Amino acid sequence: MSREKTNYWRIFRIVCAGITFILFILVCFLPPVWSKAVVGQVLPSVLRSTAYFYLAALVSVIIISLITLLIGRVYCSFICPLGTLLDIFTWVFTLGRKKFRRLPSLRSLRYAILVGSVIFALFGVMLPLGLIDPYSFFGRMVATMIQPVYIWADALLYRLSDGSYGMPLPQIAFSHYVFVITLIMLVLLAATAVWRGRIFCNSVCPVGTYLSFLARFSLFKIQLKGPACPGCTKCEAVCKAGCIHLHRQRIDFSRCVMCLNCIESCVISSIKMKVARRYRHSKEISEHFSLHEPAGTGLSDNVSYQKRHPHKREKVHHLSETEHESSMHSHLSNQELLRRRHHRFPEMIDFSRREFLISVGSTGIAAAVAAPLLKLTAAGRSPVMPPGAVDRDRFISRCTSCHLCISHCPSKVIKSAALQYGPAGLMLPYLDYGNRMCEFECNICSNVCPTGALIPLSLKKKQLTRIGLVKYYFDRCIVPRQMTSCGACAEHCPTGALEMKKWRKGLRIPTVHPEYCIGCGACQKICPALPDKAVVVSGLSRHEKAQEHVTIKAEAVSDGFPF
Amino acid sequence: MKRRDFLKTAVAAGVAGAVMSPFRCLGKGSGQSGAPELVAVRGPDPVTMYKRGIEELGGIVSFIKKGQSVVVKPNIGWARLPKYAANTSPQLVEAIVLDCVKAGAGVVYVLDHTCNYWKNCYRNSGIEAAAEQAGAKVVPGNSHSDYRKIVIPRGKALKNAEMHRLVLDCDVLINVPVLKNHGGAVMTSAMKNLMGTVWDRKYFHSTDLNQCIADWVTARVPDLNIIDAYNMMRTHGPRGVNLDDVVNAKFQLLSKDIVAIDTAAAKILGIKPEKIPYIAKGEELGLGRTDLKRVSIRRIVA
User: Which CATH number does the domain A468-563 belong to among 3.10.129.10, 1.20.1250.20, 3.60.15.10, 3.30.70.20?
Assistant: First the structure.
């Protein structure tokens, strides 16, 4: 009866995860308005809320936090696209027959990583946090692995169908090294997923760590019910977070990703979501599992013992394990499995509080020292940043490289940086004017940015935002070099910053009005001069406001015919 | 109401064209009698001017046979709204397409190799919607796979280049530029508009732009040129900065002679035709005549 019920929960979870997974792939392909869906992602929304007031992001973070405080890390199994991807990896590579194992808590590791990467961000380098943020990784993966395939497929379809299908999309500015970085990360993630399920979510993922902190205080928690448990270990085998400790009859709910598999797996339906209580062990449980331990080290006393002697905790535990193992042989056959597992996986529990603080604190201090040094490498480098970035230092400290702007850029002029910003800005978007330009009638990038690294600009405002400045090189220009007409640059300039002025022999050469230049790169893209372009747009470390072009009304045409 | 009127006129024009078609053959050789070589119209809107103008040329049926494939090549170069006159008027393109369809064209394509992102250009110019509504196939010109390399035997600077396959394969090419001033080529009109059918425009700019423009026309001479100068960009062309660049000239030119029509267009724009080198180069290549006194012109106020 209850099995039926829990089945529905699992189906519900899979459907939700499937929908969000597909949605977060599609946000890179659907019209830009769909990218608003990314407010459902924790880190981008937190960052956006710190950048400017955006109600949806704020509400989203609050709702996700409240849900976690109520029933745990639903986010990790229902919304997070990377979590779903990890589940897919596990399922596909083990054909759905993966038997999971109980995992150590790794609490110090995950807090150290969270604190370290957050301190990096606070000291002005978003790189580490962006690298491990689940959505940013996912978006990067879609932009560098799925979108190129889509574009190539479109081009192929267009060609094969003689033009009736597909629509020639601009070729993506494919970045090989981002592809390699993303591929390496993907392979590692797949390997960890196949090896230990959601270990990434409970050791590296900064969002997972934040939610695990909240889940500790959840009102409702998944709990083992107690005496009737035959110790079949089925729940441990389906727990991808490895957070069920059947032996001790406890679930580390801070690590539980709410996949709900254990509820379904329990043969006696004794795993339930209930109002959390302080963990208690009745004598019956201890007896049931024959956890006869020396006085003072029994499980029921464990907590109080730890409080008194925190550093002795591990030792005590090992003692109890050994005790326990020796007494287990004569008991339930199911316990044999448990025993072996324990043997192979000596229980690792949390470090003591002091050790925890030392490891997290030292990581934080190391980050606080390393971040400013890393940031120094960006000094003096100013590639053209997307409109809305405002300032280079600000951009480096806020962009998580989710590459949503790259996915949406219609002219694909936005590209992932190698060392254009220095190592601190690895994978950050920048504009490459080699053979592309920033479309004048477009303000998509700043409006899709989910982290607030790009501040949304209206079209009018974007058209007056100077993201770079043009420089004209007379000696490279076609006109003086070949004494033929050209004017491609002025032709494409949308603001009139480049104008063809009379020169000699009836020829015209470009003149620059820098006050009108917005650095869109139209001139550089089209300049036919080789090997070096005669008009080059260079980036600014801080965006400026360009002047609106002051024009004179063109002379009207007289009546009649001039010929 | 408007559409009905239009249909009536179009049918009338068609009938007139059909009736006149036997005489057309007579007039063709002489140039002075029958249909004029250049029609210049002034009128209240592009569609009215087109209807009057094409009537003078014997209707669109004198250019299209039943079942032929037609390419209408407007200027859709920029992602700008019609009021800025950076692109051909969408109403004019619509009227031409409707006319072609009515004349029994097998298929009418509308395309341009745009300067801005093609989807934005097609949308913002209003041409995509208007032409599709009229029954045209609006196709992109920004896919390299659509271009085929051709040899240009008459070319002086341009010996070979890649042309859009539809332009290359079509039976009838109708060139529908918008008249604008041009930073590089001084003026963009009929001859310059055909740069929207080549793949590599940078080559033109880096290799004697004016000669290349003239050479390129020899590769595929349009069967009819219709210059939209209803709204005309006089300054900051070809893209324009704002509405100050645009004047309401209320002109339209129609001709088979691409050199003569550009010469006349230059005069409308207020530029001496001698200042536009590619026009003279076009005449050198035998594409038409610059001496408008020797061209039969019909001037109409619609």
Answer: 3.30.70.20
